[in-house]
């Protein structure tokens, strides 16, 4: 109150949000401003009154698009060699002035050999995938996914299980990849070292964003752009890699399930194929029952209950002989069942921010 402010509400989807917020904003004539960004025109129009205006962002100009592409594709100096300019301009034209598509395409080409033959080959492959002559953002992101080295593809897809607009710590993500078996030993490196390299590769390819970094620049937490998150979910569900449950889960043969509801049922297919279970919101207490754990989770490698309203673990947890990752961080669990001593393959037991006291079994 009494001060001039700028309030930015980014990526808004709820058209009622503005009506709630404006009730508490001081109207003191100081020239304050509110900026709302959204991909939904209905939400934008819900904010309009006599003192506001809707500005629809236009695609980038070709010149700006080309400059942005070169910065990503030629990171050393941002200058495109003369023999690649025509191919580079063809790629930029197909991105239709969409910044995320340009960044994805530039990041992809930055890893290609800087020769006319190699780039022409990539361009021909792009044209095979795009029949309508217009790359668009989703097609550009799909091409970037297809261009990932094989070991990185499941690592990217696993990000589909986290809720929208969520961050995930570097350490947790690396440990999940290892528990899934996505990371293979090579060159006498530890699995953690190899997994960290996978993460940096995905960041450098603009498939993952850095959410939090240390003062030295080391990544501490990551997130995924909403459009890339949508892509990961779509690819995961189509390939039975994972499924997201916002309401009662239908019968599914997906190997991984992300429970984002408390109303969940399990089916026979789960027992045969389920490998990872991620629980969010209030789903954990309803699902973490002896019968479900014993019969549906017997082949599970990952059981992530972080921040779930869990008070107690059933003793049947000790029967999950394939379990490699058990996440209990910020749960209400105070005691571990003694049957955990049977988990001979367990790699990670995360009990940070709990009241659990370590005891020797």
Walkthrough of the structure:
The protein has helices at residues 17-21, 41-47, 62-73, 85-94, 99-109, 116-129, 136-146, 152-157, 170-180, 191-204, 226-238, 268-273, 283-287, 290-296, and strands spanning 6-9, 33-36, 168-169, 209-213, 219-223, 243-245, 256-259, 276-279, 302-304, 325-327, 348-350. The protein has 361 residues and is of the alpha/beta class. The strands form three sheets. Strands 6-7-8-9-10-11 form a six-stranded parallel beta sheet. Strands 3-5-4 form a three-stranded antiparallel beta sheet. The chain has a two-stranded parallel ribbon with strand order 1-2. Strand 4 (209-213) and strand 5 form a beta hairpin. The mean pLDDT is 84.
Characterize this entry briefly.
The chain is α/β, with parallel strands linked by helices and 361 residues long. Helices cover 37% and strands 11% of the residues. It contains 14 helices and eleven strands.
Strand content: 5-15%
Separation of the first and last Cα atoms? 58 Å
- Strand runs, count: 11
- Report on the biggest sheet: 6 strands, parallel
Mean pLDDT: 84
